[in-house]
Amino acid sequence: MGWIARLRSTLSGSKVDDTLDEEVRFHLDERTEEFVRRGMTLDEAQREARRRFGSIALATEHGRDADTVRWLADVGQDLRYGLRALRKNPGFAAVAIVTLALGIGANTAIFTLFNALLLESLPVRDPHRLVLFKTSPGEGTMTGSLPKGRWELFSIESWEFLRAQPLPFESLTAVRSGEGTVSVRLPGSAGAAGQAQRAQAHLVSGNYFAVMGVDAALGRTLTMDDDRPNASPVAVVSDGFWRQRLGGKPAAVGAVAVLNGTAFTIVGVTPREFFGERVRRPPDFWVPLVFQPQIELRPSLLMRTDAFWLSLVGRLRDTSERAQAQTATTAALRQFLTHKAGDKLNDERRREIQDARVELVDGAGGVSLVRQLYSQPLHMLMAVVGMVLVIACANVGGLLLSRSAARQDEIAVRVALGASRARLVRQLLTESLLLAGLGACCGLLIVRGMIDALLKLIVSPTTPVHATLSAPILAVTVVITVLAGLLFGLVPALSAGRSDLQTAIKAGGGGAGGARRRALGVSEPLVVCQIAVSLTLLVGANLFARSLLNLERRPLGFDQDQVLLMRLNPRLAGYTEATVAGVYRSIYDRVSTLPGVRSATLARYSPLSGGSSVSSANVEGYALKPGERVEFETIQVGPAYPETLGMRLVEGRSLDLRDTMGAANVAMVNEAFVRHFFPDGRGVRRRFGFHNDTSGIEIVGVLKDAQFHDAREEIKPIVFMPMLQEASQFALECELEIRTAGDPASVSNEVRQAVAEIDRNLPISDTRTLRAQVAGTFDSQRLAAKLVSFFGVLALLLASVGLYGVLAHAVQRRTREIGVRMALGAQRADVVWMILRDTLVLLLIGLATGVPLESMRQRTTNASRRQQQRQDSADADESGG
Known about the structure:
This protein is of the alpha+beta class. Helix content is 52%, strand content 14%.
């Protein structure tokens, strides 16, 4: 019989058995009739026919082997038997399936999230060939001196030089480090005729879409001809903007959108799934770099050789490797710097050029703030849920061991009837895999809800992250299920496979001690394992939560309560560096007098907002160390700044309304500035200056140190410059900060109305409280602490269920022993203590095992943290502090 026919017979199941039974009856009837014709009676003929035919069961088995795929038939038989066994023990089946569902479901959910946030590639052509020159999601511009060490930001001049070199790239594109908010008018668009709206625009070079590997869904993408001087203003819009603001009409291609007063022709629409090189909400417009002044409403950066504002993305050639491209690009960068130095090339400059380098990283996943924030927590959660799965497997394994002890008689009889050890092990492993499969199916029912809940906690609804149960995820779930089934089923199966009839008979009449050892002894290591791992998880979660709590309670140097923050955008209202100071003064005077407002100020950005501005400078009287370059953070602030932020002035005065245009140039500094530059501890009346100036600005006040960035980092020197004295482009970036007498939200509408009375065209956005902003910096750690604690409690619950199940079955197996003891005079308390003693022994062993494990984990974590801190310090020193 061919394989296809045998497979068809195997799948037909009972039909094969019916056919074989008919064939056996036919042969027996033929023989019986033959013997009757020879003169035998009917009974004699039937007996002789059966004797001559031989074993009916053996003949049936041989026939089944010939007509079917035997191993497949055995698997089906084992599955049917396993299902019947589970139906006979619904309590055991329910506990085991729920336990496995929690373990497998948690692993599937976390891995799905892990894949979506950390492993998912950009929706572009051949994403594995993309490389990034910058991994951090930070944005901004660096001006002044050249970068030192690793280059992450580039000028137009340096990008064009690299693009012209024979490097192992198909092409090299440049993008603005950050997006810009623009005022957009869409004449003729539905519901928006002539009305200005806000949108996000991303400046990119003309070859951006070609390098990214994206074609237009409608129209065309940008080209290098669009990115040349005197080119007509054109833009590509995102699919979302096209659908929501342009009505999703094909006629939108060719329409004109007025961005910040400049008319741009829309030439194309991107595919729906494309969001750019950054994993976040796609910008509304992609605009050529040549239109940077029109989009940002600031002086042109196109011809500045000291402005580093571009991030680079490269597409490798098919035959090129990332390491090869990194070496070649670093050599080209050093060549550029050598050529740029010209006759000023001295020994110090040669050392700086030799230290200059690029570090290329895999660009398949793009740049993601979410990935940076949640990479470590997700790796940790993967380990935690893996431990939970181990506990679940140990739990079910213990239950199976206890159950196998109750099935000794059945197994022994099957051995006596001729079943091989391999056949028994296969049967029991099939039951284990069946349990794992049912647990996985139930686990998948809760995975979707877990994923949705986690995504809501981690990313905003507009972030293009989609965690779905794809084929690879389901394949991983299948692997986890099989491994789990083998993990908890192998030991019980091998243990049961060693049984025999003689052992079972002896066990049936054995003493009480033997029953105890059979019922409990084989499960003890699994119970101890569960207790030890649960302890490790719970203690680790507790320490993690305490560390986070201590970090949140650490004094930050400012009072975050009752402070309202609002972002102002004077650029979009048409203000320039020369005119913005007047509106700032009016806003300050008006808002400061509102009911419920205790004080108000202006600032370029607030603490822990993610903003940062570092400038090169010189400090009068400070002797530079070899290779040192003076850099510190500069923040433009308004009057009453210390009072509004709750920062303490330790020396001198704060900036006030005296410090305006035409007045002497002054500044406040923090204590870290004084410690670093003035060993005598006196900062007031000292002077410093930016770039080549050493004495243009006088320090009039010193503020107590406050943390403006990561609360775990050392506070660095900060200079606070008067906002009303600022005449550069930085004056057009402002935040209104208000300290209120009560709930900050209660004065929000009054503040908006007051600003509108001064200039109704001045946009206000991003309204929030300072406390919420500070709390948001700990979101990733807080989420990780909650999840680790949740899974730690889940692990403890599973361990408790496992311990209860094993001990309950042990008590059941020792019923005869307990009856004998009580018949001989044992009291109830004696019996209870006998059982509790076994439980306490297991708990103590588990605790004794778990404490060293947790200590080892803590030492490993601390060593890794110290190593990371040393690396961060080395990187900071290498980049000039």
